[in-house]
């Protein structure tokens, strides 16, 4: 079992919109925050729009999130931007800045890599209390993150979780700790932030 008081809520999102895979000659093309080309590793313009909109979704000014299933994160985790992709980190960087969480601090952790760092990521997350947001690459959310959580703090309805995180950008997977602090229950909500979020 993990720490005696694992997070009361874990929220998991996929990074925001990216270029087509495989790339094509007509775009849309990705761009870094400074306007320079992303070379296939960054968000496209709608992805940056979603990244900005997450501020009001997770941490509205002087208020609580409109969706009662969502809570403002005390900790944000994103994949290490030095490795395969910068997109997860780019997606939550505006939210971290809004909350005054410095990249590399305990509040905004970018220490773990996609496709191998998930076990250590989960160990770090489960050692925390409060509310945690994880932004990751969708192929490695299920099962890499979810199964590692379930191995340490059981997810009571694990069998109902889809075999793969859907290939969309607008979902939030939620894990809510039961009143005894012994198991999580999985659920899913829609961000409803952008045209096409259904």
> Helices and strands: which structural class?
alpha/beta
CATH architecture: 3-Layer(aba) Sandwich
CATH class assignment: Alpha Beta
Shape, per Cα inertia axes:
globular
Q: What is the beta-strand fraction?
A: 15-25%
| Low-pLDDT ranges | none
User: Would you identify the CATH H-level superfamily?
Assistant: Phosphoglycerate mutase-like
Helix/strand order, N-terminal first: EHEHEHEHEE
How far is it from the N-terminal to the C-terminal residue, by CA?
Answer: 37 Å
- Radius of gyration from CA coordinates: 16 Å
DSSP E strands, number: 6
What's this, in brief?
With 198 residues, this protein is an alpha/beta fold. Helix content is 24%, strand content 16%.
In words, what does this structure look like?
The protein is an alpha/beta fold and 198 residues long. It has one domain (9-190): Phosphoglycerate mutase-like (Rossmann fold, 3-Layer(aba) Sandwich). It is 24% helix and 16% strand. The protein contains four helices and six strands, in the order E-H-E-H-E-H-E-H-E-E. It has helices at 45-58, 87-98, 118-126, 141-152; strands at 9-14, 75-78, 108-109, 131-136, 171-177, 184-190. A six-stranded mixed β-sheet has the order 3-2-4-1-5-6, with helices on one face. Helix 1 (45-58) runs parallel beside helix 2 and helix 3 packs across helix 4 (141-152). The protein is globular and about 55 Å long. It starts with 8 loop residues before the first strand and ends in an 8-residue tail after the last strand.
